[in-house]
Amino acid sequence: EVQLVESGGGLVRPGGSLRLSCAASGFTFGIAPMSWVRQAPGKGLEWISGINGGGSTTNYVDLVKNRFAISRDNAKNTLYLQMNSLKPEDTAVYYCTAVVRFMHYWGQGTQVTVSS
After folding, report:
1. What's the confidence (pLDDT) of residue 48?
2. Could you give the dihedral angle defined by the CA atoms of residues 92, 66, 13 and 6, in that order, rounded to the nearest 10 degrees?
3. Strand residues in 1-116 grouped as ranges (E)
């Protein structure tokens, strides 16, 4: 059974940093493309970053480029999102997603709130 469990969210002041983690199990993590997607209050889902299985290729939506960094540790079956220079508009539930055998799987999400 594919499982994705996010952690690391919380309340942070504008300009602060957080690192999200996503622990994966139930599939061959090292070959699965992974992404982070977020949903702000009252808004739709927004893809923000993706990484290939080997970790050599990453992509970002312009809104988070140069502030967020996606990475993965295939030995630990864990995906990360380092978020720096956080803004109030980054407030959202953050989900990690995996593509496994052409199907998309989602975690339960972790709340990130950026507020003074």
Report:
1. 97
2. 40
3. 3-7, 10-12, 18-25, 34-39, 45-51, 58-60, 68-73, 78-83, 92-100, 103-106, 110-114
Return the closest-CA partner of residue 47 out of 56, 34, 57. 34
Per-residue model confidence (pLDDT) at position 19: 98
pLDDT at position 30 is 94
Pairing of strands 110-114, 92-100: antiparallel
Average pLDDT over the chain, rounded to an integer: 97
C-alpha 25: how far from its chain's center?
Answer: 16
CA 39 to CA 73: how far, in whole Å? 25
